[in-house]
Structure formats: C-alpha cells, structure tokens
Amino acid sequence: MAHAKAVDAPSSHGPVKTGTGGNPWLVLLAVSLGVIMVMLDGTVVGIANPSIQADLKASLSDLQWVTSGYLLALAVFLITAGKLGDLFGHKRVFLIGVAGFAISSVGIGLSAELADIIPGLSPVGALIALRVLQGLFGALLQPAALALLRGAFPGEKLNQAMGAWGAIIGLSSAAGPIVGGLLVENASWETVFFINAPVGLAALVLGTILIKDNRAQTLARIDWLGVLLLSGAMFSLVWTIIKAPEWGWGDSTTLTFAALFAVLIGGFIFWQSRASQPLVPLSLFKNASISIGTVLMMMVAFAMFGAMFFLGFFFQGVHGLSPLEAGLRMLPMSAGMIVASPLAGMAIGRLGPKITMATGLLITAFSMFLMSQLSIDASFIESGIPFLLLAFGMSPVFVGATEIIVGNAPINLTGVAGGVQQSAMQVGGALGTAILGAVMAGEISDKLPGYLGPAAQAIPPAQLTGLEKAAAFGTVPPGVPQQIGDAVHNAFMDGMHVAFLVSTGIAVLTAVLTLFVKAGRKTEGAPVHVG
C-alpha cells in the first residue's frame, strides 16, 4: 500500500543553498530508487508474514512487533532525521539511509544465521531488532530524498516532479504484493528482503554520482533527550497493549508498563515546553486544526494498518491461497491509489479538504464494513471491490492532511509540521496493529470454545491455548480433525470481522472530526505530501 510521505522543508531552518546541478530528472531517478526500497518493503511484508510465522514459529505478538517496531522507529526518528539533513547535508544523510536500509534488509533475511552466531538471540528477536534498525534508516532516507528533489528542481517544475514522484511510489506499492508473492512462492520469505540489496546498491552508485548537496545555512540542534523520552514512551505503550492479553490487563507487569508510559510521556511534554529547540514545538498545537488533524491522521492509520495486518493470514491461512494469489487479491487497493491520488488532489482544489476528506472517510468506513462481511470463500470480486473503494477513500485523507496540518502551521515550522504529520501516521499504524491485534485475540479466545462445542471439554488447557494461538493466524495444526479445523477458521473470521467493524466505527468518527478543521494556506516550498 502506498504510504504518504512528508518531509521537512529546508526553509524551516533558514535559507537554503541548492547545488544539485545537472539534470534534475536524473536526481529524481536516484532518490526514487532509494524510496522504492521502502515502498516495496511496506507492501511485501504482509504477504511474507504467514511464511515468517511458520518458519520462525513466531507468535502473534512477535509479528505485531515486526510491523510496530518498524513503524515506531520511523515515527520517532522522522523529525530528527530532517534536522540531521540540515546539519550534515541531505545527500550524506540520504546515502547513509539507503546503505543502512539495504544492509539491515539483508540482515533480516539472515535472521536465523545471526541467531546461531549471537548467544541468547532468537531468530524472531533478530528479525524484530533489525526491523527497528531498518525503520531508523528509512527515517533518514525519506525526508532527505524530498529535500534533495526540492533543491534539484526549479519552482515551476517542482509540481511536475512531484507528480512523477507520486506515480513512482504508486507503481512500486502496486508491484509490492505481486513481487512479494512471486518471491515467497518460488523462493523464500528471506528473498523479499534480499531484493533491497541490488536496488540499494543502484541508488548508492547513482546518488553518489548525480546528486550534489544542499543544507541549511542556519543549523538546528538535535533534541536528543526529547527523542529518548518519546521513544521510551511509545515503546512502553505499544509493549503494554501487545502483551496485556497474555499477562492480563490487571496484572502488575501490565500496570507497571502503563505507568512507565504515563511518566515518560509526561516527561516528554514537560521537556518540550522547556527545551530551546524542542523535537516537537508544543506551540504548534495551539492551532485547533493542527491538533485535530494530527489526531485524524493517527486514527486513519490506526484503522487502515491495524485492520490490514490480518489480511495476509486470511488469504493464505483461511482462504488457502498461494502467496502470489494473495498478492493479486491486494492489487486493486495499491493500483487504485495511482488513479485516486491525483483525483483527490483535484477534488480538494475545488471543494476544499473538509468535504473531500469527510467523503473519503465515509467511503473508507463503507469499505471496512464490506470487509467485515467477507466469507471464508470470498471471491476476487468480493474482496476486490472493498479494496478498490479503500484506495478512493484513503487518498483524499493522505492528500488533504498536508493542507490541514502543514498549511495551518507558522511558516517557520512547516517542516516540523510535515514531520509531525508523518510521525502521527506511523504511530497510529503501530497502535492499530497492537490494539486491533488484542481485540482480535480476545474475540478468538471468547468464540473458539463455542465453535468447538462439547469437544472443547475434552481438550487439555495447553492444547486449547495452542489452538487459540493457531486461530490468530488462521492456520490449523496438522493432524487435527476437520471439525476442529473448521472451528479454528470460524473463530479467526469472527475476530477479523470485529477488527474491521472497529475500524469502520473509527473511520466514521474521524469523518466527523474533519468537520472541525479549516483549510490552511498553500505555501510554496511547504512539505510535499504524496500518496
């Protein structure tokens, strides 16, 4: 799926020297190769998850961290990464991001081998740690890429470049499920990550040759204490939500981590009010539209990423499709983004963000509701229609968020506002994966005994727990009777339906929120947000 990108405007920290001489379209090619890695990675992981679970014996919480750890690393580090580009040069930061992303991707594919070398490290633990590292390098890469584009293209050609940039992102996102399905089906899940190595190498070579640097004249300091406090708070929150179903919501460990989150987020807010150059200036949120827009982005990502987490397991585990067939099922959404994004931009230009986004969110809610009605043997048309609707529902939100959040920010904070917008999206996605995973696990635990019927009384508690864990992935342990297999699949479907119904309600609530925001100014050089 296409992730919207936002980036610091170099002008947010002072005048900018631009020196990306030569053909700017070759600069576009170089930076696009770097971002293609990130887009492919974002859409292929969902296809690879069932194979990762089966190969590494990963639990549901493990796979939630494979997604959430990556998103949180992106969320916390995006704003800092933009400032690092100002300090050390966007070309240097971009190339470090590309190299680090490619190397960590190869490391993910070698998780099992790394676990054999490093004592006490499990393959799943290595994978999660490297996904976090991948997210950090992805955060370096993304803001720098758009900053370099802004320096390469003159003002009158920048919109044309952004259109091409959006098409490249859309095409790579659409290709992701197909590429992932082909690799998983004909090779292994590891190759999904190995493919980043040649793409990253090409981006490094072209970037080194074609890109000249640009950086701000007025250098910003990094609020490392703010980064540390926010990272700790977000980790504590997501860890609490993911582990609470296992520990118990009233367990002392759950309450301890919840309290730690409260202390750290309180410390972060206090420090941001005192720091000379805070990570997130609290003055931004005095504007109601920015505050509401940030919450809106979190809720949208919560609904979309949280619910979509389970679709790979539905298609491959319950429906019995191959990885390639599962990738084809997801194609209408990714391909639809290519058409929907420019149409959304035109609609916002004519109608404004309020009406356009509210309409898009109602379409999103209808799409989520249709997904909550999917049957075990849903056809391509039955799953494809809600996917296509989702593309046309989400695109106005992704495109309109720039005008609401960035357009209402003070001129000197437009870059930071763009970072806040993108960070809110990543945090929302991580929370959605964690919370809807907990909701689904609870629903499965509640419904599975009923589907098993009298047979549940004869199943030992340990075996029943094992069936609940299998049901979370839509898989049936080998050798079990068909009646038990049907019960596992039915329990998974109930859990997935509840997750999509929760997402439906959130989308409707978010549509109401859009009615309380106002359009922002259109400022040349403001952060560009494309889907």
From TrEMBL:
It is a multi-pass membrane protein. It comes from the Bacteria. Pfam families: MFS_1. InterPro entries: EmrB-like, MFS, MFS_dom, MFS_trans_sf. It comes from Nonomuraea angiospora. Its main location: membrane. This is EmrB/QacA subfamily drug resistance transporter. It is found in: Cell membrane. Residues 27-522 form the Major facilitator superfamily (MFS) profile domain.
